[in-house]
């Protein structure tokens, strides 16, 4: 007797799970963790350690949807570059598993959902900031800067610095100097973080014709830029103390973490051609930002 689909009730399950996995991959979930940490940290500080749980969850949901939308648009626009790079050629769009129209509709739906969630359950200002972040990342960074200038990640990094503004606005409905200092921290942290990654995969960017800093100026100058940006980051992190936003616990933690991050940048500066040092600094930059915002949270709990 010939077997039918009804005789195999689970035949379609793997295909559905594979499709869902591909759409999930388009949102780049791994890089969203830090964005959510900075959003939650900003909310915690803005509320002086007493953020409403529902508001926190709703804002994180809205932020996740906004970041997902921006990342899907990025995958859509960069599908030609992704096809040329070993690291990205197996992503769903260049591999042909998801079509451009499908990705476009998915990105638009995520962006619309983000705006609705934040506007209804947080406030309109937070929703507008999230949409601004999507627009900046897609239009300014992905469509314009990424393919035209070595300073792409410097200016484009402003998009990644918007999540703490969204978190702050969700709590207060406005932005003050403390919120902009959080923006400045992410803005200055982004180039050392991303250039360390670019040094690791420089040849991929070269093959794709993307003018990342290591491709154009080489490892030595890139390591120098990384060091100076890391050095510039430290006083911005410490500025939260004289502003009265953070207390002495944060001041001590930020000083120690800053010295640790700068030491990693100095090590790379001494041996800029060592890929293992670039990788080590890339990992160090992630832990640095996470621990810095953890220190903000601890400070808010113990000293407020």
Reconstruct the topology from this structure.
Elements (H helix, E strand, L loop, with lengths): L12 H14 L5 H15 L6 H25 L1 H6 L15 H22 L2 H22 L6 H9 L1 H11 L4 H24 L1 H7 L4 H5 L1 H20 L9 H23 L4 H29 L1
Helix pairs in contact: 2-3, 2-8, 2-14, 3-5, 3-6, 3-8, 5-6, 6-7, 6-8, 7-9, 8-9, 9-12, 9-14, 12-13, 13-14
Features:
single chain; 304 residues; mainly alpha; Tetracycline Repressor, domain 2; 2 domains; 14 helices; globular; disordered N terminus
3D architecture notes:
It contains 14 helices and no strands. The chain is globular and about 50 Å long. It folds into two domains: 15-174, Tetracycline Repressor, domain 2 (Orthogonal Bundle), CATH 1.10.357; 176-304. Helix 2 runs antiparallel to helix 3 (53-77), helix 5 packs antiparallel against helix 6 (124-145) and helix 9 (177-200) packs antiparallel against helix 12 (219-238). It has helices at residues 13-26, 32-46, 53-77, 79-84, 100-121, 124-145, 152-160, 162-172, 177-200, 202-208, 213-217, 219-238, 248-270, 275-303. The termini are far apart. By secondary structure, it is mostly helical.
Query: Which regions have little confidence, pLDDT < 50, spanning 5+ residues?
Result: 1-14
Average pLDDT reading: 92
Number of domains: 2
- CATH-defined fold name of the largest domain: Tetracycline Repressor, domain 2
Radius of gyration from CA coordinates: 21 Å
Write down how many β-strands occur, each being a DSSP E stretch of 2 or more residues. Answer: 0
C-alpha geometry: globular
Strand content: under 5%
At CATH's second level, what is the architecture of the largest domain? Orthogonal Bundle
**Strand-and-helix sequence, N→C?**
HHHHHHHHHHHHHH
Considering DSSP H and I runs of 4 or more, what fraction of the residues is helical?
A: over 70%
Largest sheet: none
Task: Calculate the terminal CA-CA distance, rounded to whole Å.
Answer: 74 Å
The DSSP helix count reads 14
Subcellular location: Cell inner membrane; Cell membrane
Catalytic activity: heme b + (2E,6E)-farnesyl diphosphate + H2O = Fe(II)-heme o + diphosphate
Keywords: Cell inner membrane, Cell membrane, Heme biosynthesis, Membrane, Transferase, Transmembrane, Transmembrane helix
Protein name: Protoheme IX farnesyltransferase
